[in-house]
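Ticket closed. Logging final result for Flavin reductase (DIM6/NTAB) family NADH-FMN oxidoreductase RutF.
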Amino acid sequence: MFYEPQNGHGLPHNPFNAIVTPRPIGWISTRGADGQDNLAPYSFFNAVAYVPPQVMFASTSAKPDRDGTKDSVANIRETGVFAVNVVEYAMRDVMNKTSGPWERETDEFELAEIEKAPCNTINCARVAGAPATLECKLTQIVQLPGEANFTVFGEVTGVHMRDDCIVDGTFDVTTFNPLTRLGYRDYSVIREVFSLKRPGD
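Final structure:
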C-alpha cells in the first residue's frame, strides 16, 4: 500500500512508529529552576555527532501548565542542562511508570522508587543504576512543524558507565540488554549483536 500522511492511512492505528524501528529510548532527567526533579522516557532520541559528542531528543505533546510543551523541555529551557539515562530491560517497568501524565510537582524518581545520583558536570539528578548516563548541556531547542513538536540538542559533557558493562575495554550492551521502542505499544530488547567490516577499513 501507499499513503500520504496528510490524507490518512486508513489503518486501525498509525503505522509510522512501527516503520521507524527499533528506536533507542532516552530516559531524560531534568531539574527545574525551582529544584524539582523530573524523569521521563522519549523514543524520538539518538546520538547525532562525535566531536564534540552530541545527542537529541524530541518532545511531541504538551501539558496545560507548561507553555505548549512537557516538563522535560520546560525544565531544560530554565536550566540549560539534562541527562540521558540508558534503559536496560530490567528497568522496563519502572521506566514505563515514569511515562505517565504526572503533575508538574511529581518527582518520578520517588514515584517509581528509582535511586538518584548526582551528575558531575551539570546540576541534575541521574538514574543511579543505569548502565550509562550522558550529562548534557543544551545547545539549542528547535521548534518543528506541528503543534508541540520540539527537538532538544545537547552537547555531552560527562559520561557515566556502569563498571559491569565494560568488558575487555568495550561498552558491551549484551551485559544489560538495552530496551528499544517499536510501534504502537510494542518494545523489544537487544540480546544479540554481530559485526560488519566496512569496505576500506
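The CA atoms of residues 58 and 151 lie 4 Å apart. No further action required.
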